[in-house]
Amino acid sequence: MKELIKNRIAFAGLIFISIILLFAFFAPFIAPYDPSAIDANNILASPSLSHIFGTDTLGRDIFSRIVYGSRISLSIGFIAVGIAVMIGVVFGSIAGYYGGRLDSIMMRFVDIMLCFPAFFLILAVIAILEPSIFNIMIVIGATSWMGVARLVRAEILTLKERDYVAAAKVMGASDARIIARHLIPNAIAPVLVSATLGIGGAILVESALSFLGIGVQPPTPSWGNILMDGKSTLGVAWWLTVFPGIFILLTVLAYNLLGEGLRDILEPRLKE
Amino acid sequence: MNILQVENLKTFFYTESDVVKAVNDISFKIKDNTVFGIVGESGSGKTLTALSILKLLPYPAKIMGGLVLLDGSDILSMSDDELRAIRGSKISIVFQEPSSAFNPVFTIGYQMTESIFVHQGLSAKKAKELSLEYLNRVHIPDPKKVFDDYPHQLSGGTKQRAMIAMALVNKPELLILDEPTTALDVTIQAQVLDLLKEIIEDKKLSILFISHDFGVISKMCDEVAVMHRGKIVEMGSAHNIITNPKEEYTISLLESVKALAR
Amino acid sequence: MLRYIAKRFLGLVPVFFGITLISFFVIHLAPGKPTDIQTSLNPKVSFEARMRLEKLYGLDKPLGVQYINWLKRFLVFDFGRSYVDDRNVSEKIVERLPITLLINISSMILILFIGIPLGVISAVKKGSIADRATTVFAFFGFSAPEFWLALLLMNLFAIQLGWLPISGIKSLDFEYLSLPMKILDVARHLILPVAIAAFGALAGISRYMRASMIGIIHEDYIRTARSKGLKESAVIYKHALRNALLPVITILGLSVPGLIGGSVIFESIFAIPGMGRLFYESVMARDYPTILGVLSIGAILTLLGNLLADIAYSYADPRIRVK
Known about the structure:
heterotrimer, A: 272 residues, mainly alpha, MetI-like fold, 12 helices, 75% helix, elongated, C: 323 residues, 14 helices
């Protein structure tokens, strides 16, 4: 933790993420307006003191929508990555631990999954299952576990040769116990890095989906679907596009910085 | 005449927290056509001494003072271009780890002729002939094949011989050998040492031989300097040092070799 | 070498079957018959189309037989007929494929020729202003939502400044232009989409390249190269770079699915009639045969991309090439 503070840029990332999380938690207190409140008199108002980020095509306050949208975008990010990590860790540790044919088959499956352009697959599945926040979380998770699986498998392959594993086996520990208690905790470091970076990625995917109209459905605000209106109003209402985009950019950037910082700490290379 | 003269050399490591005086004011002279050995344990600063002579130091190390004269010329004040003209031609160095000393994506022949092109400017054909001649000199059984081989296809012993050939191909005046046999299997070690002895007798060559192994040093060297924690603890002819060591550290070093020999 | 290629190609066969399996699985995800959901809600679908669909999927037959039928059709790239206009799906894809390929290959070229040098410079001048600037640029590059950048840049260059066309791939008077002008016209239309499609991957590759170079520069053989008196430029750009490029080749191969997937967004924003846009439209219209078709073709393209990357890698790394 100390080292994290020393790495100033990663720390900056952490600070920003905390701010956004606060936004999300305390949305009702921070947002000046109800995000769904339609105000026909104030359509497409440019940023002003009463609406610091302006209003959208229905007169809704964009700042409030962004604040509430953070809840959606962030929770989708967290849960999707959570799902991906769970699947990936289980998959990778089984493949790595048992090795042999099981490993080959499992890794072949990973290769196959990786052949599908993730975005295509996500779009296809959501088109079939109909967009809902729940589905979005699951689908993003179900298409991004492969990287984690490979990482975990690689770690387990090296770790399982260690002495403490042999000792545990001799003492009669079951496979599941060895994997869960001894191997996975030691393999966690790269997974943590991958997960942090993955949250940023998941937010990008969700915003793209919502932008295309196949993600979070209005009126529920998400940073992506606010941008959806921005597309047609770009010439006249730049605030509809610029502000949500900046939030996405900064949040993803923060996660990326934090992830890279974690990587520097947890996977030390030669000091320069 | 002294081919190499080192006076008050200081090379320090600058880390985040402190300074390590890895080479701390050492001085020695290598006479023409002799084999000078530096013996010491790991961390004594012997490799850094060799790297300092060629100004090939890794990042946090810096030369902080002293004089290095090659045949009278001051190396430490040379420009980069002048240094490059010397490296690989007047002074060559063979490193410890043959498996990582060659670039894995180029053939042995390519890496040898590269050096010849830079320093001798020969045609490709002549450079290849010269390389084959030297590969033969180091007793590599099938020089033509090895010339076209990639490093990963060769054994450690063969690679080290090729390294030696590459170091000799531009007829250096001073050859530095940094633990040349340490990474090899024992039987191969003996063969390579014999090869080195043969080369020493055959060519007009001065050698700086670095090792932690007193046994090897005694076999190969005329003069010896014993290094410990960055300083030269004792120096003299190999014969005198071994039969009549004066310093405690030298004695303990010798003792450990004798203990192993038993 | 040829043997290696053949081996890799054969190794792809199980992956190919896997792709067919997963596509098959995807279509059967929908609760109830796949036919029900869209046919009953979609007034555009006639009764005949629905019957044809049921027959297409052989939904009355057991799953195993269904899969075999699907596989047979897959092998000849018969994905049935689109709901939207009842045309053969494969035909529609083939129409759009060249454009998407053109954009993606152009993006790849950009990534190679800008991303890699950026990474090398960053590594060689580590800690300098150039390095810091490139790092900042890279981080923004892969943190920014690409569709957002697309909108902003489109606004800036096409609408505000009028330097580049807004959308499509050819101007209205395309037919009347001479050949070199035609090429220029298409190029002008594609500058923005290609640049933005490449942007994120370019940023990522430059970081990878930088990390790879930095790792390589510490290797023993670099020290050997210097000790031979080689010029520093030869040490870096010959000895180090050749080795540092190797893992990057693999990464490039892995970025292919990302490029293909991303084409959905760019082609929609820039109104380019490519495969990605076709996919988007078919998703919006719940046109399942087309969705399936594009999905499967996308996977096959990725497969080919990976094969190419593998071959390139085996050619570049003698440790793999020469056994």
